[in-house]
Amino acid sequence: MKFIDPHIHMTSRTTDDYSRMREAGIVAIIEPSFWLGQLRTNVGTFKDYYSSLIGWERFRASQFGIKHYCTIGLNSKEANNEELAEQVMDLLPRFALKEGVVGIGEIGFDEQTKAEEKYFRKQLDLAKELELPVQIHTPHRDKKKGTSLSMDICLEHGLDPEWVVIDHNNEETVKEVLDRGFWAGFTIYPNTKMGNERMVEVVKQYGSKNIFINSAADWGISDPLAVPKTAALMQRRGIDQKDIEKVTYGNALVAFGRSGQMKEEDWETEKEIDLNAKFSGNSVLRGEQIPTSQSNEEDILIK
Amino acid sequence: MAHRTATKNLITMKQPQKLLLDWIAEVCSSEEVKWLEEEEKKFRSQGNERDLVLAFSKVPRKITRKDLNIGPEETFKAQTLKKNWHPENLDSEQAARILLLLSFASEKPEEFSGTVEKLLETADLNEQITIYSALPLFPNPERFLQIAYSGTRSNATSVFDTITLENPYPYEHFSEEAYNRLVLKAAFMERPFWKIVGIPERANPVLAELLLDLVSERWSAGREFNPLVWRLITPALTENRFREFKTRAKQMDPINEEAVVLAYEQHKNSSTPDSRKWEELLEKWETQIHT
């Protein structure tokens, strides 16, 4: 099977992750702009960060046969530094229309402050102007209200819900998101977000329409193989293959494909990567454990 | 059809631009060509940097990426305009971007290097590759030296290759020291360093010493090395070294042993390097590593 992980922060991951991801069938990934674990203090570091997302990280992924896309945005935490946020806002249009930029993201709320709301709104307008999808981070705290509010604001700004991905859903938020016609992203992330057994139950209950999953793997304890592992678990738990394909590949492609910057041909027609391809003299691909429905259950569970 | 549309405005265009537009018109629709011509005209009348930046970014949305299939005849034309220019691997999108850059440059030659710096600050991978591949065509080429050096420091091989391989810029503008560093890095990164313009004429004793150290280091680590490097080591190959490295080469592989012998013969006879023999060695080496 092939997979798309539509939310993963490769900047904080190693080359081992890339080779395991490719071996497990991940063909394309989307890296949303986010914060780096600590607050930045000047606009230059934002510029270099965005520039690495469309340059170096894209190259690094290509070494492993993975197509790398990204979304560009000012994250909610750093929106609270208004002086800096203004400068970052000026920077965004210089990156948002680059090739392979599939949306504005990840934006939204963290503590649901006034400043967060201000820059959320500004970026929604930018997305609308540039005709790009939006990838919305929903808050960890006061989540249900924050999720509803994010959708209210999107509609208020005249965005089409089919162009908006509401991410990091759980059992409490999913119904409203689907009912209002938005895309519902689920993050399979140990301990703090969704476990994949719970995810199986969500798909059993709601089906596969408008739902897709991601790993949001970053610098925390997270799992870059969350998408293929969850697909394997779904197979094992009897979910229809067509539904698995949608939530682990097809739906993300439709949602972010609206940008016009992400097409199946991008990886289907890509030359077979040369297994002898050298990266600083070292061959990059090695045999790795591939999660399949035959794997030991222990190995594919994410709790 | 497309071709005919493109030729109308060409009289006022400069030579490389004309060639680029011809190639684009061969593979792109007349609408795509029209967009490009209109953008190009804009710089000729106004030379506005903002327009260039916008048009440059918009190219992938306006021009379908297609191989230009540039054959030997077109390469010949290109090289009569710019010696050692290798446009063979250009696609329509890159050609369109280069055309825009050149049109802007001919209007604003003074501002142009600053504009290129600005573009590179936020350039994605394909944009970087395009800009570095066009360096040899830019007016006032000496102003792009720092830009070219940064390109050679890139860790993305696709970017490094563009400035390094089959690109006349380093050959024409790099000091010997910088040129040597470039060849050494290319060899170190196991890139096909023999495709650097100026190889082997620009081979020199300093470079030979650097490369000899590199090969020695690799062999000590039990790693193979491309035998073509010996062609560049020739100036440093004293009799003692010849004996030492011939023995070591024997332990590595027969092709390298042949290379050491060939290099020493050239060194002794100060004969003109026999390219054919080196090409045969490379061919042998490539067959060997692919089986």
From TrEMBL, chain A:
One of its GO terms (molecular function) is hydrolase activity. This is TatD family hydrolase. It comes from the Bacteria. Gene3D superfamilies: Metal-dependent hydrolases. InterPro entries: Metal_Hydrolase, TatD-like, UCP005295. The keyword Metal-binding applies. It comes from Autumnicola psychrophila. Keywords: Hydrolase, Metal-binding. SUPFAM superfamilies: Metallo-dependent hydrolases. Belongs to the metallo-dependent hydrolases superfamily.
